[in-house]
Amino acid sequence: MNQIYKVNVNNSFDFDVSPEQVSCLDAIKMSASQFHVLQGHKSYKCEIETSNVNSKSYKVKVNGNTYNIHISNNLDILIKDMGFEVGASKKVNEIKAPMPGLILDIHVKEGQEVKEDDALLILEAMKMENVLTSPRDGIIKSISVSKNDTVDKNQLLIEFE
């Protein structure tokens, strides 16, 4: 499968760019963010003002005009068509038991605000203590278990608002 890059400029213009077109680009790097580009016998002064590699979004100034550019490859397009987003924020609304075990301790209360990676509770399973942490920032809506409860795999433990 031939890799094609889908380039969107200012949420208005879409272009398909092949790797061959990229390799034929006559560009000279002037600094870490500045380039001199020759295309069709015309000279362009280009500067990358901001870049987000995770979302493949860039703000580029070309001859004094600023453009917002988003680049997608075949995999990005397939993932989006399947209903997923690359780098999308986590929106986990419930914590379920990853395995059967015993609740040793609960570190949060209903209504409490938590940050990503805060300890929520300790689940003992196979003689090991497992600290279950928050997958995102949020507020605890409900806690479905109590200390010393035995839980089954996939049993609801905590819900977020």
UniProtKB/TrEMBL annotation:
Cell inner membrane is among the record's keywords: no
Gene3D superfamilies: 2.40.50.100
Entry keywords, A to Z: Biotin
Record-linked InterPro entries: Biotin_BS, Biotin_Carboxyl_Carrier/Decarb, Biotin_lipoyl, Single_hybrid_motif
Membrane-crossing segments per the record: none
Matches recorded under Pfam families: Biotin_lipoyl
Name of protein: Methylmalonyl-CoA decarboxylase, gamma subunit
